[in-house]
């Protein structure tokens, strides 16, 4: 194996590691949902290359209302799925789509696109 092949192989390996880290690596931080006068915990989530914010912190036992706004044409972002809450919604480009649920137990719950490439997390606190 000559030096050029070695450089190409190492570069390819580094690229694979970066892609895996970018899509499935640990995510830090979080956005605390705001309480509204109607009693809901609300957060607006932008869908463009992923979810922003991708971690939303809510309180247990209080209804949650997420408003998704899709700002891209990527087919991966056409739908959001909340498996643990048995909820899903189609996300038309440029429209605000509301997903409501009631978190009854503390813990971390995922939400994602239908392909599992865009991922987010709901952290439910006491």
From TrEMBL:
Descriptive protein name: EfeO-type cupredoxin-like domain-containing protein
Spans through the membrane: 6-24
InterPro entries: Cupredoxin, EfeO_Cupredoxin
Record flagged with keyword Lyase: no
Pfam family name, one: Cupredoxin_1
UniProt domain EfeO-type cupredoxin-like: residue ranges: 16-124
Entry keyword set: Membrane, Transmembrane, Transmembrane helix
């Amino acid at each position: 194996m000559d030096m050029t092949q070695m450089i190409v192989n190492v570069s390819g390996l580094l690229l694979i590691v970066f892609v895996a880290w970018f899509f499935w690596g640990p995510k830090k931080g979080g956005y605390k949902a705001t309480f509204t006068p109607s009693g809901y915990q609300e957060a607006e989530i932008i869908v463009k290359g992923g979810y922003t914010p991708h971690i939303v912190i809510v309180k247990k036992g209080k209804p949650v209302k997420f408003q998704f706004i899709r700002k891209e044409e990527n087919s991966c972002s056409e739908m959001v799925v909340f498996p643990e809450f048995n909820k899903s919604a189609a996300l038309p480009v440029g429209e605000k789509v509301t997903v409501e649920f009631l978190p009854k137990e503390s813990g971390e719950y995922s939400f994602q696109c239908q392909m599992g490439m865009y991922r987010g997390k709901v952290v439910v606190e006491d």
